[in-house]
Amino acid sequence: MGTWAVGPFGNDFAQDWAEDLHESNDLYFIGDTLDNVLTNADHLEAPFGAEGLAAVETLLRLEGRGGVEDDDSAGIDEWVGVVKAKYKPRADLVEKAGRVLDLVLSERSELRELWQDSEHYDAWRAGVEEQKVRLAGK
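Above: the chain sequence. Below: its structure as tokens.
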């Protein structure tokens, strides 16, 4: 996986996911991504984990609780700007997003293992924990 930043869009998997999202104009793709992550709960492979973090962050942006906007998030921010006017909050997606974040941080996550082997693990984990806080509305 090509990774250049600890944020949810700072890797190739998330950027590919963001490109695919642009073909959608509703929440189906986000929901499908969250479901795919949760279906792989026994052993979550890194690509699914990275896509899950991107989906959660996109949902947070739709909810008005997004994180830092930067070059990595530009495509997502553009999509959110188009879709947000017709967005209706969905508690089921927020609940799934919370489970995805827990799974990504768990011992069953290859993405967590990869980050744990890097010098940037603490910063990555703090970013995911911060997503959890924003998801909880705090």
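The mean pLDDT is 95.
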